[in-house]
Every structure is written in C-alpha cells, then in structure tokens.
Amino acid sequence: MNIEIVVDVKTTLGEGPLWDAEQERLYWIDSFDGRVFRATMDGRELRAWDVPQKIGSIAIRKNGEGAIVSLQRGFHTLDFKSGDVALIHDPEPNLHANRLNDGKVDRRGRFIAGSMDTKEEGPNGALYRLDPDFTVTKIDSGIICSNGPCFSPDDRMFYFTDTWSGEIWAYDYDIETGAVANRRTFAKVDTSKGGAADGSTVDAEGYLWNALVYDGRLIRYAPDGTVDRVIEMPVKKITSAMFGGPNLDILYVTSMAKPPLPRFPGDGQLRGSLFAIHGLGVTGIAEPRFGS
Questions:
Q1: Which segments of the chain have a pLDDT < 70?
Q2: What is the pTM of this model?
Q3: Looking at the domain assignment, is residue 267 inside a domain?
C-alpha cells in the first residue's frame, strides 16, 4: 500500500470525492470556497467551476451536461458548459443558520443529502431525498451535522452519520420507493483521539470506509459493524473517501487546509491535498448518476 498526493490545491474544506466511471474523471469540492474540481485519475486536466454559495456535495447527471449540487441554500443544477447555476428547491428557506451538506445517489438515480447546523451545535438539520423529477422529500430530522451517506451493494441498507453523535447509523432502504426505516447503530466511532465520523463509501465486498476527521485515520468496517482495518493518513483533517480509477481500486481521500471550527489545530504542508491510496487489494462500486 502507498499513499500519494494527486493534486495539492489547498482546499479550505475539501470534500465529496466522486469518481464518474463513464467519463473516467474524478470530481471533488471545496465546500467553503464554493468550488467544484475535476481531473483525471492522476490529477491532470484540472478544471474548476465556481458556485455562488458554500457547497456540500455533487452528483453527476445522466444527461452528461452537468451536475446536481447541494448548496448552502438548497439543491441546484450546475451546467458544466456555461457554468450557470440554477435553483431547484430550497427545503429550509427559514433556517438561515443551516446549509445542505453531504449527499450520494442511489442506484435508481435519487440524490439523498442532509443539512447541518453551521455552528455544529443544534439538531436543526434534516435528511432529504431529491427524486429525478425534482420532487424533494424529508426522510429524517433532528440532525446536527449530516455526513457519510452511502448504500450497501444489495441496496438494502443506507448508511449515514450525524458527525458528533459518535455513531454511524444504518437504515433499512427501500430501493423501489427511496424510503428509509428502522434507524439503528451500525458502529460506534472511536473518538478517543478527538476525531469524528465524516464522509464514507462502501466497497464491493460490502465493507464501509469512513474518514475520521481531525484524527487522520481511515476506518474500514465489516458489514457487522466491527473494525476490519485502520489506515493512518499523512494529515489529521481528512474528510471523505471514494474508490475510483478505471479498475475502481484507488481510494481517493479529501482533506481540509483550514478547520471550520477554531478549536482544531492545523496540519502541515500537505493540508488540503487530495490523496490517492494504491495497493489496498479492494475495489469499489461505480457510483450511479442522478436522473431516471
């Protein structure tokens, strides 16, 4: 196993790595600076788009012309050719201290993303489902900081974490309707070193990988919630992970250059880099695109 730097763009809050298997391109975002990045698997052909608000996550659209982005004030479309951004729906027009955050697409083309309290203090956030017809449905509530949505390979489980809860949750997932039920604890998170659960992905064997932000460790959890593997990263403020590359065998990991909360210390020169881990002996699952 070896860890490499793919791109060192010093993202203030790097997040949301997304490998699009059709284009063979890697996307990721700078959540605080409002920017979407795209590059080849090894960081070449770097391209960036600015969006007008803080951004929580991105989903590539099936028509290939752009993306769905969860911005501070709702779900929007992003046109890759023109750079234009247009509002779809703001599910929380009166909650000005909230913003939309992490999200993922299920294998029927629905985008599920949650909101968060920007001070990461109150349970003011919720979990939303954006269907291909742009209908928005609230599917859970009482969340402080939405993170880590992902799905089991058989589509029967939806995983999610409220970052400061100290847990990763599992829900029963109905792939036919996009409904969630029976929320329970999937895994207890080791917060002894000051870290917390951030972004997640599920590999082809059904194991969940979670980034422990502020702790600098990637944790691989078995389907029964037990810890299977731990990887120490070169920086503490890792934020999310996603398998990519033509063979889906490279684990891409985002990081932040500046913590959003002042109580957390800074990293060294590698802060804000996009990392790639090779030689894990594990492959991921191609991420679906948004739309019907």
A1: 261-262, 265
A2: 0.97
A3: yes
